[in-house]
Amino acid sequence: MSTRRPAPTERPVVLTVAGSDSGGGAGIQADLKTIEACGGFGTSAVTAVTAQNTTGVHGTHVLPVEEVEAQLDAVLSDFDVAAVKTGMLATAEIVETVTTYASDLDCPLVVDPVMVAASGDRLLDSEAEDAYEALVGEATLVTPNADEAAVLTDVDVEDEAGARLAGQRLLTWGAEGALVKGGHIPGEEVLDTLVTADYIETARHPRVDTEATHGSGCTLSAAAATHLAHDEPLREAVGESIDLLERAVRYHHDIGRGPGAVHHLVDVRNEAARHPTAERVQDVVDWFVDRDVRPLVPEVGMNVVGATPYAETTDEVAAVEGRITRTLSGIHPNRGVRFGASSHVARFLLATREYAPDLRWAVNCRFTDEVEAALETLDGPVAEYDRGAQPEDVAEVEESTMQWGARQVFGSLDADEERPVVVLDRGAHGKEPIAKFVGHDARAVAERVVSVVETLESESEG
Questions:
Q1: Distance CA 174, CA 277 (A)
Q2: Which domains does the chain have, with CATH numbers?
Q3: CA-based angle 379:382:384, to the nearest 5?
Q4: Which string of DSSP letters, residue by residue, matches 124-152?
Q5: Residues 82-137: pLDDT tens digits?
Q6: Nearest Cα to 318, choosing from 333, 296, 330?
Q7: How confident is the model at residue 416 (pLDDT cuts 50, 70, 90)?
């Protein structure tokens, strides 16, 4: 047998200069995972070895400066480095050394001024704080959190105005951009403020109710460096990195005895699930056509929707384009399965996932008195919301109604309370009554739909 022809790939090389986290959630380990996830090839220079896990830092050994220099020389002499990011630098001597190397770089530099771990443990000596000004002056982007920005600039960052002022002060040191992260600022929203000489922008997103933020700063800065390595403009690189982190925190890893760690590969895993998700939707559609579930197809048409594991938008929900309609001989899907094809049912499913993130599948079905009676044979609870009780301050659009309805049904459930398998919407003027079947397993949801059809047919024959 002849040898196979190699097929090498090319990815921009990103160098991270940071400390090692034995717990795997932050530091070099988080950086390398994130760089790979964002399409880069990760290289590293380790500045310190920490005995660390989700509960805290239990020991730190700072490497001699000569060892850090040897690593930097080895990487920079062999690789065409497209971006560099710094994390834990530990001492003034290492900060000054990295600054010397940074002055010779011909690529973007992202400086994450790591001073304190998420657990509260200090990762930088006080002398090193003063040495950071020169390193920040070499940066394409500096990414302090509110506490770090306050230490560096003497500005109390307690709101958007403080973040803007701190960012502007960092620009006077020579940085091209400053992203002042708002995770440590109290409030229902997280405000991340990007300051450059040309513009100031604040990204606002709802706060995720979790303490599992271990590795969040490392992940964001590594993502930004990798996007810059792909020659993306600063604004786009920062925006994509913030979006990644928001999802990585919400769908964090539940590991260790502490709060957990962010999910560095969340976007990669979500993207990989798209094809299997669409296939499962198609399997259910084919079964429904084969079985002829006509009795449950509503006038507006039926749809089968499936969300990827970490779906946040309708573009991450697969559905039948044009829905499934009744014909004289059975049912017929108007077009194929694609992502973003559903609005109504997809938005309802996404709204339920705010309270039950493992729900991934939904089917909207016809709802009548006969259907309501048949639902009593199912193996789970049936719940409902009343459109007539919708408050006036909830916008009269389907998206708002879906979110409000999902909150009425799922928002009040206790953690150990069994979740509904069907949610009833009795309709309103111009709105057809609908029964929405939901669940975390596509087959189980489909089986319940078929079970109700069989019950209706049995009652009709009787």
A1: 47
A2: 13-271 (3.40.1190.20), 273-461 (3.40.225.10)
A3: 170
A4: B-HHHHHHHHHHHTT-SEE--BHHHHHHH
A5: 999 999 998 999 999 999 999 999 999 999 998 865 555 556 667 777 889 999 99
A6: 333
A7: confident
